Amino acid sequence: MSRKSDRTRNQIVQAANRLFYRSGYSRTSFTDVVGAAGVPRGNIYYYFKSKDDILHAAIEYRLDVIRAMLDEWNRKFTDPADRLKRFLQVVAASRHAMAQWGCPMGTLNSELGKEQPALRADSRRMFDLFVLWMTEQFAALGRADEARPLALRLLAWAQGLTVLAHVYADPELLAREAKELERWIDSVDARQR
Amino acid sequence: MSRKSDRTRNQIVQAANRLFYRSGYSRTSFTDVVGAAGVPRGNIYYYFKSKDDILHAAIEYRLDVIRAMLDEWNRKFTDPADRLKRFLQVVAASRHAMAQWGCPMGTLNSELGKEQPALRADSRRMFDLFVLWMTEQFAALGRADEARPLALRLLAWAQGLTVLAHVYADPELLAREAKELERWIDSVDARQR
After folding, report:
1. Would you say the C-alpha torsion B13, A109, B27, B96 has a positive or negative sign?
2. Over the stretch A105-153, which tens digit does the pLDDT of each residue have?
3. DSSP strand E in chain B: where?
4. In 3-state terms, what secondary structure has residue B27?
């Protein structure tokens, strides 16, 4: 595709992504995306035949963002405990959006997980990136035998904090509890130091 | 209202409640409720003028169920640690539904929390019942100063486990991790015994 095509496609995907996050996937119509993207309806059909196609592209976009973020943390921090704490600090830093709209990943999965298995299989991949990355860090903390359960536990607890922060529109709950989880990271660190 | 009216009204509310849980609120139409309730459309209008009205009734129904459940746990168990563990055991017992449709309370709040504040204010009351009850139990465990933060933490972690169990369609994740949280209850118990 040409540069102009790429730019237009990205414009549509990012507008749709924002609407899916703020209003939910079901409550966002193809027409809503047309309006938000500022691209004529006919042009959008050139790139995307259906709302499901746009969702797929939005998920691919989010996966790229997540991969870039994990790579950045791996570069910035060499210690696995610092890396996991970085995850928690970034969750805390996004607390105002979380309190208003919930976790983009968690709420999308909760919505699609209601009898829409094909769509949900796609969005599960976002969780997979975090679970895999966290598993690597817990193994590097000297907890190789339980690395995956620990990763699932950390991700579950972080997700739960976003649910409660969203229910109560309480960003500070997320900030406080994320700090508690940083302490928990230290408590599971098995390295002799 | 007459007994027959009450029965019909309950029939509608319970059918709607089930649809809202399995398909989500947005994706359930008034027509879907008519179909599932097995009551003629005109009859439903006698009780409910809109889908929002039905949602309100469904939430009231769920609040009644939650209150009855908390009262039952209070009667069956006098020890606050046993009560909190009972909550975790009931979450674990419902793991197959949780893995398929998520937590009824959490997923409803996540959905309504996307720019539907009036509806969400109503559903938040389900969380309030649990937070209040858990706060009482943590105070009785000798943690009065931090009772509410501990209650929010436990509820957050339990919610997060339902999110991950739902994402991965993995009921056993919920069973295993709920057992871990029972151990955590013991670890925060401050009573001299």
Report:
1. negative
2. 999 999 999 978 888 888 899 999 999 999 999 999 999 999 999 999 9
3. none
4. coil
C-alpha distance from B160 to closest chain A C-alpha (Å): 4
B38: left (phi over 0), alpha (psi -120 to 50) or beta: left
Give the residue among A93, A91, A101 at the shortest CA–CA distance from A156.
A91
Question: Which chain A residue's Cα is nearest to B28?
Answer: A26
pTM, entire model: 0.96
A22/B115 touch (CB, cutoff 8 Å), yes or no:
yes
- Here the ipTM equals 0.95
Q: What angle do CA B19, B23, B24 make, to 5 degrees?
A: 95
What residues contact residue B25 under an 8 Å CB cut-off, 6+ apart?
B51, B55, B108, B111, B112, B119
How far apart CA A138 and CA A81 sit, in angstroms, is: 8
Give residue A144's identity as a one-letter amino acid code. Answer: A
Could you count the other beta carbons within 10 Å of the beta carbon of residue A176?
17
Q: Is A113 on the interface with B (CB under 8 A)?
A: yes
Q: Residue B164 and residue A164: Cβ atoms within 8 Å?
A: no
Question: Does A109 lie at the interface with B, CB-CB under 8 angstroms?
Answer: yes
Q: How far apart are the first and last CA of chain B?
A: 53
Give A-chain residues touching B27 at CB under 8 angstroms: 26, 114
C-alpha to C-alpha distance for B57 and A122, rounded to whole angstroms: 34
